[in-house]
Write a structure and sequence with these properties.
The protein is α/β, with parallel strands linked by helices. 39% of the residues lie in helices and 28% in strands. About 6% of the residues have low confidence.
């Protein structure tokens, strides 16, 4: 056999092997009785380690919900924002439930559910004792923001005359200003403010107004269409049944809202 023909046959066998590997993820999960789910453990309220040293949060609850609907056990795999996609590509995990946004660049290497399971929220937060029901209620108030963030940009657009933006250089300083009472409210992402809500519950910090929202999707290994369809069906059912709203209310203090279904 000529070297060229041998190379062609080798390539054909490799492609056949790759095709056989594709579409097997769901079957492998069901056979093993375990689904390995990438979740955050340092990003409250989506995922963090509780006082019992166990992972908890919205993404953790959704991972467990998916496992329960499949009838398998969830093996939670802690990931960071930088390694969650590589973990999926190298099959260290079966799916990613870790505040993963869907974009064109990621879609080159990862498949996504069509339905989103939760929102990623930036909003105005303040103690319960501070009445803020509309942006007009910011008149006479100083609102802390981190300079150059989307919260800074959005509040600059809607801040009424008589309200004041106090810009800080990083998220820690912004949140510290709220915790110390230097400002009565802040424009912040949910994860940035949630640690203060956990550490100082007596402050009664709560979500007041929406600034921006983007959906979180579940990442699936490229080419695993059977698994993608199954997970998408579970997420869609959770959205329609109210289970997704229940988790969102539990961890974010508001329902899922207008995100893709």
């Amino acid at each position: 056999m000529s070297p060229v023909r041998r190379a062609v046959l080798f390539a054909a066998c490799a492609l056949t092997s790759m095709a056989a590997m594709a579409q097997n993820a769901l079957d492998d999960i069901m056979k093993a009785g375990v689904i390995r789910v990438a979740v955050p453990t340092d990003y409250p309220p989506y995922g963090f380690v509780g006082i019992d040293m166990k992972p908890q949060g919205l993404d953790v609850d959704m991972a467990n919900h998916i496992a329960a609907k499949l009838g398998v056990r969830a093996e939670l795999v802690p990931v960071t924002s930088t390694n969650r996609v590589p973990y999926l590509q190298t099959r260290k995990v079966d799916i990613v439930v870790s505040t993963l946004a869907r974009n064109a660049e990621r879609e080159k290497v990862v498949d996504f559910t069509t339905a989103a399971y939760s929102p990623f929220i930036s909003g105005v937060y303040a103690p319960k004792s501070v009445t803020i029901k509309s942006f007009d209620d910011l008149v006479g108030k100083s609102v802390g923001v981190t300079r150059g963030t989307i919260e800074d940009q959005e509040l600059t657009k809607v801040m009424p005359q008589g309200g004041k933006l106090m810009r800080f250089e990083d998220h820690a300083a912004t949140i510290a200003a709220l915790g110390s009472g230097q400002v009565p409210a802040v424009g912040s992402s949910q994860p940035a403010v949630s640690r203060l809500m956990q550490q100082q519950p007596k402050l009664g910090i709560e979500y007041k107004l929406m600034l921006s929202q983007s959906p979180n999707f579940i990442g699936i290994p490229k080419g695993e269409e059977k698994l993608r369809v199954k997970i998408n069906d579970i997420v869609t059912e959770a959205r329609k049944s109210g289970d997704a709203d229940r988790l969102s209310n539990k961890w974010l203090g508001r329902p899922t809202g207008d995100i893709p279904l």
